[in-house]
Amino acid sequence: MQTIQRHKTVPVSIDHVVVGGNAPVVVQSMTNTDTADVVRTVKQVAELAKAGSELVRITVNNMESAEAVPEIRERLDKMNCSVPLVGDFHFNGHKLLTAVPECAQALAKFRINPGNVGRGLKRDEQFASMIEFACRYDKAVRIGVNWGSLDQELLASMLDDNAKLAKPRDLLAVQHDALIESALGSAQKAESYGLAHDKIIISCKLSGVQGLIHAYRDLASRCDYPLHLGLTEAGMGSKGIVASTAALSVLLQEGIGDTIRISLTPEPGAPREKEVVVGQEILQSMGLRSFTPQVVACPGCGRTSSEYFQHLAEDIQSYLRHQMPVWKSDYPGVESMSVAVMGCVVNGPGESKHANIGISLPGNGEKPVAPVYEDGEKTVTLKGEHIAEEFQVLVNQYVERTYSPKV
């Protein structure tokens, strides 16, 4: 198998989480609660962390939210939830941190968009103020640029310069350069204000797949800051998942990207944690990380008109993910396990043999038996009304036998 060669970046410590360097690609997410609502925000942060979000960003947009941050951190600590909190600042972050320095202390990282810090002469002063707080409390900073809040003065200046050329470039090309210049120029400015090189992470998010790939390739060729990947405003449901996967997979395959966030619009009533699971599955599918045992299951065909194998695959997958918080500490390495749930004799035995543990259920017209394979060898044949329950027991026994720490 081809090994993905990661783009070399400097490691940035965000409390106990390292982004960049040789660290694994980090999965993160963001709350959508009113941060001033401490109870709901703590609950959602804890849910995201339990789902596997290794950093959680919260909105800090007014005095009430800034004042709530220290209590949120304190409550999470009492719950033994140590996930680092990232403060998302726009427009008035310099004022909030000045008024509530405890907010700066409680956060592990600041997210600053240079286009939303201020205008004219105030921009540098207000940006410098936020960087000063990061230096004072030894915090990392993500300098995040996107289409929605691109520095319009910088863009206007670059468009004016472009118009003077004998052969002006098209608007999209100039906008692309403005995004890159805003990100890298702001990072350099932050360093001139005293922020250490290894305290800076950069993002340059777009909502188009090709534009995002182009932007991050450009960034990777010009800096060694860790890069935060994400398709902004990716959308809802399958559209958002597919677009994010298409963009991030190309970049990750090229070794670009040190932390990712899948920006899904939640469907009504859907759990916020879905974007965390999608991020994990992208990394695991590419062989970059392992988070939970993977279930291999056939799509079904005319040989498998019964829905039995579909329900079993769904139940096993849900069970494995539910067990991971306990298994992760008790059975090291279990996250790389593969489980096959197949629906007929055509591919069933072969795929089951290639998994760590697999079951080949009977298709239409086949004998009502289900052989189970462990590490390539058939160990037992299940029959009767309780195949699903018996297979789950076998999975548990396999985990305990195979992944228990050696004494």
TrEMBL record:
Enzyme Commission no: 1.17.7.3
A Gene Ontology biological process term: isopentenyl diphosphate biosynthetic process, methylerythritol 4-phosphate pathway
Pfam families reported for this sequence: GcpE (PF04551), GcpE_C (PF26540)
Cofactor section: [4Fe-4S] cluster
Organism superkingdom: Bacteria
Reactions catalysed according to its record: (2E)-4-hydroxy-3-methylbut-2-enyl diphosphate + oxidized [flavodoxin] + H2O + 2 H(+) = 2-C-methyl-D-erythritol 2,4-cyclic diphosphate + reduced [flavodoxin]
GO MF entry, a single one: iron ion binding
Entry note: cofactor: Binds 1 [4Fe-4S] cluster.
Domain IspG TIM-barrel: 9-279
Metabolic or biological pathway, per its Swiss-Prot or TrEMBL entry: Isoprenoid biosynthesis; isopentenyl diphosphate biosynthesis via DXP pathway; isopentenyl diphosphate from 1-deoxy-D-xylulose 5-phosphate: step 5/6
Residues reported in the UniProt entry to bind [4Fe-4S] cluster: 298, 301, 344, 351
Ranges of residues in domain IspG C-terminal: 294-396
Keywords annotated in UniProt: 4Fe-4S, Iron, Iron-sulfur, Isoprene biosynthesis, Metal-binding, Oxidoreductase
Role according to the record: Converts 2C-methyl-D-erythritol 2,4-cyclodiphosphate (ME-2,4cPP) into 1-hydroxy-2-methyl-2-(E)-butenyl 4-diphosphate.
Family listed: Belongs to the IspG family.
HAMAP family to which the protein is assigned, alphabetical: IspG
The protein, known as: 4-hydroxy-3-methylbut-2-en-1-yl diphosphate synthase (flavodoxin)
Organism of this sequence: Leucothrix pacifica
Taxon lineage: Bacteria, Pseudomonadati, Pseudomonadota, Gammaproteobacteria, Thiotrichales
Gene name per UniProt: ispG
